[in-house]
Design goal:
Length: 244
Amino acid sequence: MPYLSRIRINHLRPASQRLLANPHVTHGAVVGGLAEITGTERPLWRWDTDHAQRPHLTVCTPSKPDWSHITEQYGWPDADGDHVLVRDYSPLLERLATGQEYAFRVTANPVQNIPPSQGDIAEHRGEKKIRSRRAGHRTAGHQWRWFLSRAEGWGFEVPPAPLPPTEREGDDPAAAVDLRITHRQRLAFDKKGKSVVLTIASFHGRLRITDHDRFTHHLTNGFGPAKAYGCGLLTLAPVTGNGC
């Protein structure tokens, strides 16, 4: 049974600064909230904020979590207010159907596979298969096209923007569909002594479900790569709502 959680983080704590800066540390804290992880199930998480000084962690887990260790180390364990919310995700998943539309939010890792260069071929000559190299898309245009090109495989489409054609911004293709990039970042962090670099982008917009089974599978298993590092968790809201 999947659960969706939101955990407020006290950004003034020194330990919280490391949690916010390093996705590998955050992933470890998230995994630590689960008593068991079986098979291919994995937690998904994402940093969100409703204010520059009020970050919160949104998490989708395959079983009911316990976030006591996060609130004690990084949050407000004794303060008034709802600092940790945990909700059963099943009722929402059961209501989803092909043809429904929702507002959505997701942080993803747009990547491309680059064929091996002549240098790679020369270096690995004699090997049966020389693998291509995965690299992040760096420009907003490439990231935007990457997202749209994968939507069908993820079980949804992005409908046209609500504005009539005469009010769209010229011939900008980004104005044709209801999709926008709200944040882009190059992340560099340490993982067990090795440097990891990711290019991430946050997408907001509207989607229409075209394949119920594919879509619900990815909602609980993630969209795109780098799922261990805060990418791939897509959340939904009513089209008329203000948040996702």
